[in-house]
Design brief:
The complex is a heterodimer.
Chain A: E1 2-7, H1 14-25, E2 28-33, E3 44-47, H2 67-77, E4 82-85, H3 87-94, E5 101-103, E6 111-119, E7 135-142, E8 146-148, H4 151-159, E9 163-168, E10 187-191, E11 197-200, H5 218-230
Parallel strand pairs in A: 1-2, 1-3, 3-4, 4-11
Antiparallel strand pairs in A: 5-8, 6-7, 6-9, 9-10, 10-11
Chain B: E1 2-9, H1 16-27, E2 40-45, H2 51-66, E3 72-78
Antiparallel strand pairs in B: 1-2, 1-3
The chains are: A alpha/beta, B alpha+beta.
Chain lengths: ~230, ~80
């Protein structure tokens, strides 16, 4: 089992993701430079957070044009598990691999804090086995995490079970004050129709060990491992 | 030849920056401002290729990179 951690100019959570995979979860992980045009030999892809290309033009707008993103498209179309975290989520949106877009937080502030997420679906490789309704404590760190999509797209996401995580209170209750950025429908993470591509603003790689304040992030990577093991990877 | 591109947030998309600026204008005593929407303005220099071809290329540029049509509208002005 081998995982790819993509590295773009300006990625800055690549080493955190690598550490969580390789040293905490214990799966093989390799950095893949964004100029690479193939992902053959890898079983899962992590698009880490950061500020690719300095967020020029829009978050993720430049990174979506990197050669590796064509490889990600092919990898995703073949059913391979892909997780985009924070800027990685923004890149997936810009690339059209997930619907919608990110706008500036409604507070106009960069928000860097632990938040609570309600797991909405176990259908993604990264939430498989996590019971629906389970509350996870995972940090966010972003200025543009205010998820936007038109009404039609939001309805389709809800009807199709594509909302993976929603911001909530520690109790699991979804309240206006638990939404750190103004995201539509309190959306913290969504998946594609097939379920194999997940984008989320919170950072599971930053909280995969108790020493960091929460180990809830590890659940996502453990889920990925068991999903892959089940498929003989 | 030259062109100007205006990228603006679509109607219905919240503009927190614009809201803050609107409030600030009130604070400095500039009254009567109902709303401000912040957008992007780009100046582009191109080889001479005729207005039609330039518009065609810039339209593609806007669709594929310069604007995100989920949240933004764009307008292209090619100078003749």
């Amino acid at each position: 089992m081998k995982t790819a951690v993509l590295v773009f100019p300006g990625s800055n959570c690549d080493h955190d993701a690598y550490h969580a995979l390789k040293h905490v979860v214990g799966v093989d992980a390799e950095f893949v430079w964004h100029r690479q045009s193939t992902l053959s030999g890898y079983d899962a892809v992590v698009i880490p957070g950061g500020f690719t290309y300095g967020d020029y033009l829009r978050t993720g707008a430049m990174a979506k044009l990197s050669p590796v993103m064509d490889a990600v498209r092919g990898f995703a179309a073949a059913g391979g598990p892909v997780i985009g975290i924070c800027n990685g989520f923004q890149i997936l949106l810009e690339a059209g691999l997930l619907p919608g877009a990110m706008i500036v937080n409604d507070s106009l502030r960069f928000v860097c804090d632990y938040v609570h997420l309600r797991t909405e679906t176990g259908r993604t490789p990264f939430t498989r086995g996590i019971p629906a309704g389970k509350v996870l404590k995972i940090p966010v760190a972003h200025y543009q995490g205010n998820y936007f999509a038109d009404e039609k797209t939001l309805s389709a996401l809800e009807a199709g079970g594509q909302v993976a995580f929603r911001y909530c209170e520690p109790s699991g209750e979804v309240t206006p004050s638990s939404n750190p950025n103004g995201s539509a429908n309190h959306i913290a993470g969504i998946c594609n129709g097939a379920g194999n591509v997940l984008g989320m603003m919170p950072h599971p790689e930053r909280c995969a060990e108790e020493v960091l304040g929460s180990a809830d992030g590890r659940l996502l990577f453990d889920a990925m491992v068991s999903w892959l093991e089940e498929r003989g990877r | 030849m030259k062109a100007k591109i205006y990228v603006t947030l679509r109607r219905g998309v919240l503009d927190p920056q614009g809201k803050a600026i609107t409030a600030s204008l009130g604070h400095i005593g500039i009254g009567g401002v109902e709303d401000v929407r912040v957008g992007k303005y780009m100046e582009v220099r191109l080889h001479d290729m005729g207005k039609e071809e330039a518009t065609r290329r810039l339209d593609e540029a806007c669709r594929r990179l310069l604007a995100n049509t989920v949240i933004e509208d764009y307008r292209i002005e090619v100078e003749g």
